[in-house]
Amino acid sequence: MALKPGELVFAAPKRGKKAPQHISDVAAKDRKKFAEDLGLPGFRAKQVALHYFEHLNNDPDTWSDIPVDLRGTLKDLLLPELLTPVRSLECDRGRTRKDLWKMHDGVLVESVIMRYSDRATVCISSQAGCGMNCPFCATGQSGLTRNLTAGEITEQVVMAARALDSGEIPGGTMRLSNVVFMGMGEPLANYNAVIQSIRNITAPHPEGLAIGARSVTLSTVGLVPAIMKLIDEDIPVTLAVSLHAPDDELRDTLVPINTRWKVSEVLEAADAYSNKTGRRYSIEYALIRDINDQAWRADLLGRLLKNRNAHVNLIPLNPTPGSKWTASRQEDEDTFVRLLEAYGVAVTVRDTRGRDIDGACGQLAASEISITGAPAE
Q: Is 110 tagged catalytic?
């Protein structure tokens, strides 16, 4: 279900040159008409979708099922260039790679590929910057530049899938198995484009990338009306709620949208999502030294989540340069885990991959801007 204009009101993103329309901006059922409106035979849309989504191939010179004189036209009209690589940083012997991309208007976004022994995950951005203004977050410090299109979001996933499939990431060829919307931006503040990109990711070949909905994680700071709409989409992705504090007094500061929807309302919406989909949801909790890592807050969080279908991901904070926020002491982290487990709450301390490659969302883009100047409008 699409959001109606004005239903959710946030800081308006800056408007610049409109992104070129891409086949992945269009719902699968409408792609035939999309091609016809561009003066192309409708069946060509399905051919191009097959190359793009199933074969991860955007090189028209290799499209042997399409006449040579038509390939360039199809590429230009249906698969225009959306992302240009700016630079990449690697760690974990190349198994973790952070990519910085420039879009048609010079705006910068980031994505991260993380390869494990049994799976490969890409963390993608849904906005350039973020308007949620969380003070400990590198992206939040930059503010919101603009929403990404469904094509720009989907292209991050396709680029990652192609890198893994071609063996660019050390360890041999591998299929992309997981997608997490935990990069730059608040996904549910860019609702319609994010939903279209999720359909692109989860639809079977040749309409999409055929990655199971259960392997897609959608993170949100807790936009309650959008969570309730997500219930009706019938796409059982994993919902991850960035809570970061169990009490409204602190969360009003750490996650300012909490002044609009309180902790109890956010958890009730997450419960409703879980009840409809049967999926356990995640509570994302960045542990910040002497801010939200006290034992009494762990106790309060445990009491809130006891008997809920929730799992806590504790995130050792990846501090940004010059920030007063830093990661918790090990002993405080251990106590936090122990107290949650005492309430029967499942808890995991998240892998801290990427710390040495500007791992926090927004750091790489911020460092590039500081070197080259602000991106073009």
A: yes
What is the token pair recorded at 31? 């792609």
CATH of the domain at 280: 3.20.20.70
Structural domain harbouring 100: 84-372
Enter the tokens of residue 299. 């106790």
CA distances from 83 to 57, 135, 220 (A): 15, 28, 24
Which regions of the chain are under pLDDT 50? Answer: 1-12, 362, 369-377
Q: Which of 123, 134, 137, 361 is catalytic?
A: 361
Q: What is the DSSP string of 351-376?
A: P-TTGGGT-STTHHHHHHHHHH-SPP
The pLDDT tens digits of the residues spanning 240-289 come to: 999 999 999 999 999 999 999 999 999 999 999 999 999 999 999 999 99
Using DSSP's 3-state secondary structure scheme, residue 111 falls into: strand
Q: Which residue of the set 90, 110, 130, 341 is catalytic?
A: 110
Residue 294 within a domain? yes
**Which residues fall within 8 angstroms of residue 58, CB to CB, at 6 or more apart?**
51, 52, 75, 79, 158
Residues ≥6 apart with Cβ < 8 Å to 68: none
**Residues 168, 57 share a domain:** no
**What phi, psi does 326 have (nearest 5°)?**
-145, 170
Give the tens place of pLDDT for each residue, 33-74.
999 999 999 999 999 999 999 999 999 999 999 999 999 999
Report the C-alpha gap between 123 and 4 in whole angstroms.
28
Statement to judge: residues 199 and 264 lie in one domain: yes
Does residue 119 sit in the same domain as residue 42?
no
**Residue 227 near residue 208, CB atoms below 8 Å:** no
Strands ordered across the beta sheet of 120-123: 84-91, 96-102, 108-115, 120-123, 178-181, 216-220, 238-242, 281-287, 310-316, 346-349
pTM of the model: 0.91
> Could you give phi then psi for residue 285, rounded to 5 degrees?
-140, 105
